Amino acid sequence: MIRGILIHLDRTLWIRSDHKHSIWHLGLDLFRKHVLGVDGNRLSLLLSAVVCQQVDFDRLGRSTPVSSLQSINQLLHTTVGAEGFDRIILLPLIKSTDLFYEDEGKRLIIEVISDSLRVGGPQGYLRHSLVRIEAEVSRLSKLFKTSDETINEHTQSAILQSVERNLIYHHLDTLLSKGFGEMLVGFPERESSQSIQDLYKLIQNLGKESIQKLRNAFLIWMKQIGNRIVGVGYETSEQREKEDEEMIEKLIEFKLKMNDLVKICFESEREMFHVVKEAFESFINQRQNKPAELIAKYLDQKLRQGNRNMTDIELDQCLNQVLILFRYTQGKDIFEEFYKRDLSKRLLLSKSASIDTERNMVMKLKEECGGGFTAKLETMFRDIETSVDINNSYQTVLKKHKEHEEERSIELNVSVLTAGSWPSHHTAELQINLPNELNSSLKNFENFYQSKYLGRKLKWNHLLGQFILSASFHGSGGKIKKKELSVSTYQGIILLLFNEIESHESLGFEKIVEMSGLPVGEAARTLQSLACGKVRVLVKTPKGKDVNQTDCFSLNHEFKHDNFKIKINQIQFKETVMERQCTTKKVVTERSTLLQLSIVRIMKSRKQMKHHELVMEIINQLKDRFSVQPKEIKVGIESLIGRDYIERVDGSMDEYHYLA
């Protein structure tokens, strides 16, 4: 109004004067000095108190004079600008906001700690905090919005920081320790998933320290769950052995769940994926070599089943998931030994669901660990292919020589294996007594092979051999029933012993052991499969499920079966603790050799090194195969010093010199 009255004077006088302010600016200056004052004027303090009080009333749900507050805000922005508004309104408002939410945060967090149902636990507290923040955004937009977006953002940021600081930051440790684990356990249920997202959203504005606290809490929780899955601290219990059978499946499920959690709740944050990786690398290696062994066993199961229970795409995805767990394990040499043992059985016994899938898995391992890791595995495949060609050549030779008509009556199929590439348990020799016809065929094949490959020598191994026998059973009605039996070498040897006696006669256990040359334990297990299993081609006297050394056996002439071709399974026995220990011990011995070779190779190249430098170099070289401890390195160094490969530098206990 005053400006309107003096508008003519303002226009004419201001234009002619070089030293006078416009009446508008003059009025603003007088208002600032005499009405609001510069420092601590009573009206300024009153405005501050009124605004803070009315904002608190609004937070409590009471009615507030919105238009009056808006007018005050506009007046101050117009007269004193952003700097004056901060001094008169924003700074006092921040203090009152601190007091309001500090009190509310303390009160509600006590109820969270005491498990009060009124708050709804940590999840309810987080929901309440988000509601409060959203309400503050709305309130600020309603009461303090100006035409200057920079001022609006500055005001909103300052107030929201106060809310987040007092509701979340000051109580973050309690929220993480009290409720975060429950939220993670509940994922992927909608409520738990939303609570984790809420927590992540609230923490993001609190700085790196708070985000790191969240990552650490996530890491600790995953380690706790992972340790339970892996069985840390319960390695020797009987219950643990049963749970070990499901360990890899559970680890895969847990890994997939954590990946989904990071994608959904943590917005695919790269650092969170690193936390997942760190957790798995930690707990999967807590039981030394066991997970690596079980990964190999799990792959054996899947490669035998193939796509019977899943599609080819699902099977490939499963193999990739197992490969991720393999990547985390430090005992890759343990995995290699058990995987090689199982692969040999799948190849020699034709138990693989798909050779293409087998090759694909080896290629995955090659890409992961390099050609040196899979060299022996690839040789095993080549041996199987080469054996097919050798057998075809042998059959061609037999057809050309009529004098070998007897050998042609036995369809011989030999797998010729490279001794150094196949597991050692396949080269163990048993002095078993083979049928004369088979011995003759094996001798002829050996002569053929040595004439084709000069200088090579064959060593026969019958452990995983198989027989296909034609059998005739004379029933009580006089009708002869013919069957084709697929059996193991040991089963075949025992069954053929009954060709040497009358059909009504029987053989005692000790006689069978003597005639077959089988060890007592192997003979008992084989007879049990023939006389006590589902397919009983022998009759045991006296009856019973167990085989004793006083038992007698005879052919079961009343044998009946719907199929002409019958597979008689050998009694399956799990690897004993001793056998697993032998496999592990073999790998440990190889580790010692590799460790010493690594020391010699490094010292030969560097000539002289400090102890700590040598240790770090060794750990770096061997990390892709197994984890080596400084104590083991020290033992290897002392062994090489004792054998004059290296020596300590004169006057120094922690420096070594290579001896040529």
From TrEMBL:
GO MF, one annotated term: ubiquitin protein ligase binding
Record-linked InterPro entries: Cullin, Cullin-like_AB, Cullin_CS, Cullin_homology, Cullin_homology_sf, Cullin_N, Cullin_neddylation_domain, Cullin_repeat-like_dom_sf
GO biological process: ubiquitin-dependent protein catabolic process
Pfam family, any one: Cullin
Residue spans crossing the bilayer: none
Domain of life assignment: Eukaryota
Record keywords: Isopeptide bond, Ubl conjugation
Domain Cullin family profile: 290-531
The keyword Magnesium is annotated on this UniProt entry: no
Coiled coil: none
GO annotation, cellular component aspect: cullin-RING ubiquitin ligase complex
Recorded family membership: Belongs to the cullin family.
Designated name of the protein: Cullin family profile domain-containing protein
